Amino acid sequence: MYLQTDTQTIEDLRLFSKADTQGIYDIYNHSFTRGGQSIMESMFRKPLSDRDAIIKRISIISGFQKQQAAFPFDGATLDNVEKYISFDDNQDGGSKISLSEKEIQNGIVAVINLFHTLMQYAESEGLKQVKELEEERQEVIALLTDRAFVPVFNEKKNARITYAAATAYDVLIRINEKQKLLCLLKFIYHIDVYISVAQVAIKHRMVFPEVYPKGSSILKVEGVYHPLLKNAVPNSLQMGPSCNMVFLTGANMAGKSTFLRSFSTALYIAHMGFPIAASAMAFSVMDGVYTTINLPDNLDIGASHFYAEVLRVKKMAQELSNGKSLFILFDELFRGTNVKDALEGTLVVCNAFTNRKDSKFIISSHITEAADELRKKESAAFYFLPTVMKGTVPEYTYTLQEGVTNDKHGMLIINNEGILDILKQGNKGGKSINKKV
Question: Same structural domain for residues 381 and 270?
Answer without folding.
Answer: yes
